[in-house]
Write a structure and sequence with these properties.
Blueprint: H1 2-13, H2 23-41, E1 44-46, E2 60-66, E3 76-81, E4 84-86, E5 89-92, E6 94-99, H3 107-113
Parallel strand pairs: 2-6
Antiparallel strand pairs: 1-4, 3-6, 4-5
Amino acid sequence: MLPVVDDFERAIETLPDNLSGLTWIDGILLIYRGLQSILEQQGVVPLKAEAGTPFDPTWHQALTHEPHDTFEAGTIIGEYQKGYRLDDRIVRPALVRVSSGPPAADAESQEMAE
C-alpha cells in the first residue's frame, strides 16, 4: 500500500491551484485520507526526516551526501521518499539527502584569504 500512498502524495503536491475545490479532487483527497487512516489503525506511522534533523541510519537511508552551506555534516537536507515504521520495526526507511558540511574552499580562494 505504501507505493499507492506515495503516488497520492506526489499527485496532491503537483495539483494545480485552479483544480482545488472541485468535487472529484475532494473525492481523491478522501481516498488518500482513508488510506492514511487504515495505515494508522494498523500502527504504521511515517518517520520524521525533516530538513535540519540529524541523520540516523537506524531510520534513514542516505541516497546522497552533498556539501551544504546551511546544514552541518550529518544533517538531513531533504527527503526523497517517506519512511514508515510499525511499532519499533522499520517497514521502509526514509530515503534522504544528507549534508557533508560546508563546501570545501578551492585552492584559489584559500590563497586569496592568506
